[in-house]
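Two proteins were folded this term; both appear here.
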Amino acid sequence: MVQLPTWTALGPTLVLALTAVVLLLVDSIDPDTTNNELLAGVAGLGSLGAVVASAWYLVGGTGMPGENGELITLFGDQLIVDQMALFFSFLIASVLTLVVIASYDYMSEHRYQAEYYSLMLLAATGMTILGSANSLAVAFVALELASLPSYALVAILKTNKSSVEASLKYFLVGALSSGVFAYGISLVYGATGSLQFGAVASALSEGAPVGLLGMGILMIVGGVAFKTASSPFHFWAPEAYEGAPAPISAFLSSASKAAGFVLAFRVFVSAFPMDAVGTTIDWVLVFQVLAILTMFVGNFAAATQENVKRMLAYSSVGHAGYVLIGLAALTGDANSYVLGSGMAHLLVYGFMNTGAFLFIAMVEYWDVGRTFEDYNGLGTEAPLACAAMTIFLFSLAGLPIGGGFFSKFYLLSATVQTGTWLLAASLIINSALSLFYYSRVVKAMWIEDPASGLEIERYPLGLYTAVIVAALVTVLLIPGFGMVSETAETAATLL
């Protein structure tokens, strides 16, 4: 067997970056090109290539400790390629592929198509680098690479005032968050004299200035909370998700959230282990407060919405609270299971949430409307698409119709095993609440009488394909969840 160079372990990231460069070259040669088939095809091949590469490496055991116990590290241990990095690369690239397929129809009549696809690929590149970051400096650069294209993507429909306004708010809050995150990094560096995760952990075990270190960790928590749309740092998310084109809302609420969480997992487990931090700051307690607050704020806000897209935006905030259990329940027992449960939920969430937002994109394409009432009787006009949406919503609620049932069950099991009963109660209460507002959409589509004049004449191939594929994967994750959870737990064990 041919031994590949070590740098090829970054294959998924390199594929995404090279595809973005190709699209930018096409745009440079022909700035006015509107060849949507070519642009979407190139972007789709690049994102699918990253999915295949990530899956191949995962199955092949890339990033597993070898006989000498060494993992794949690059650039002076600034980057690490392990099972967690590949797991999240697969997740991010999968979401990107679905969004690109859906964008074929959504962007067909819009300008700036080359910029649109290249910006998505550049953002995804930054997100995958976040998964491999082994240094606070690399994490910050990767975070900015993921964030800056995202700001532009929200406002890609330049003539839409709501999109531009949402983008500006997103940028201003994001810039503030990046500043706080960077200052937190500087304080940690001042306390430990290092930025590399392992070196930071070693310095902490030898003793570090308590006040300086504690303030630095709190600031980093704030930066991570912004990226994951965790309360009270979530207020940008509903505005950005509602104002952005629906495919971009799907991309940001799924892929971007996953990138924020992989950063959190790496930083706090690798750089700030609780046994090394000691009494400096109990960041597990901080994340417990954030998790409970995020669950309740997100779900109660979602329950009061009349706009379906905005409801899903707040629902995404609530799901950030569920994933935070992966950090909030780290009590020293069954830590790999706790982290693995959070990772597994993120993967399932990536497909069902992306599918739900892409369904909304299809409804926008039909110009049906945005409120619950506008969805009345939609099931009679588009039964297959509405059946897919039903799967997404009930799976998000945790019913045994999709992989969301098992992912929430594993999160609940993690809280029970670690004795974090308040987290368990919050998870149960908020899952029950989410079923209420998700059912409102299902009721409108299948039970309520159709609105007068409701007639669908066009069925967009790309959007339909993406929605149906996402629904199939969500259902197939029921029998396949064992493999997902095993892979996630293995990755967490190696962290």
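Next, the second protein.
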Amino acid sequence: MEIKSLLKQIDYERFSGDENVLIKGMTNDSRKVVTGDIFVAVKGFTADGHRFIKDALKNGAAAIMCEYIPSELKDEGNFIVVKDPRASIAPAASIIYGHPSEKINIIGVTGTNGKTSSTYLLKGIYDHMGDKSGIIGTMGVLTDGEKIKVDNTTPEAFDLQKYFARMVEKSIDHCFVEVSSHALKLNRVDNVNIDVGIFTNLTRDHLDFHKTMENYYQAKKKLFYLTKINNIINVDDEYGERLYRELKEEGIKAISVAIDNEATIRALNLITTKEGTSFDIDIQGTIKKAHVNTPGKFSVLNSLGAFGAAYALGADADKIIEALGEIKGVTGRFEMLENNLDCTIILDFAHTPDGLQKVMDTINEFAEGRKIVMFGAGGERDSARRGPMGEIAGKYCDLSILTSDNPRFEDPYEICLEIAQGVEKFGGKYEIIVERDKAIYYAIDNSISKDVILLAGKSTEPYQDMGTEKVPYDEGSIAKKAIIDVERKRGLKK
């Protein structure tokens, strides 16, 4: 595409340079510029992209999209001057990549917890029905067996459009996208043709960015103004109940799902074991039997959201239910690790008070012995969650092992002490073991028959955020190695 073709389709204030130059891609990182890219100079939270225009030009940028042209560079390149560079990325990227989101069905999932599980449930549903599908989210971009790591839950707009284009090339029919509040606030999903939106829940998180829960809610709400066909809202959540009511008042389509409250699609008569949860699903008066292989109410609610979205897109209810019964679960989401120690060891991403509460509620439904939890809390992020997470652990667990979890520039021991104050409110027992791999080993090595051990917070997150470094970290592998070591120690494995 030539620059002049793009200019005919976007809002801009002025252009300087050669409009016949070809453009092939887009980025806001001068270090990643390749020949043919538009470099977008965004004023970020810590740096102004206009400072890196010179570097971008050296790296082969075909054009610069910017708020102003640095005087010393006005004759050095092709400049598209726009009012708001960040807001201009999404419409331009959609054009450059040929509006790919219009050529596939897209379901966007937002909420504090449950986004990853929901997208993988949807993939399982459509895999069962023989449709090709892809995922964009926390665990990367999954496209026809190819997996690409991403830095953000929801990538920047130009990467989103590039991934959609790749899926179109591979004849993928559906894409399931985790839509973060940051992405909504920062315009990353603008100009994405989203067919169905799913709201899972909203609890305290990301207030370092949003400042207030109301701001957080309003950022999430933005998704449901972008959808074309319908929205699926969990009305058991207080913010979901509000969202459903407001959308209906504004004439925006929405389907309610719930367990405890009245809803269009509702789960009834739940029976939970550690092997999963069986329930009746009521679809506007039609009752069908269903089962999911991950236990707990939260798992059922995620399944209802996925069911509702697929149903809204025309999938057969019986086939969806059949698929839900076959899906084995998502790696790192209430994942039970095999062992010969006569105990249950669970790997889960729970890293907020609500997430931890939901997992503990589920464990309480089947636990026969002691309940042990190992977790920490992030540094330089919403420190107010530390005490409440400790309180949940102190209330429900026989032992809490407090450890490091993305301390960044804070002292992880001091973070653990803040969590411990919450544990102490309920007279809970705890140990502080800052080195996370040692904490994992301690939990497993000190297990006895019928214990349930929850390793919470990291799950599949592949790093520890420490100072200026993201140190590689694989909780699943570390836990599995600890299990084998303890089994050998006890003579249960050669």
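The mean pLDDT is 95. The longest strand covers residues 265-273. These notes refer to the second protein only.
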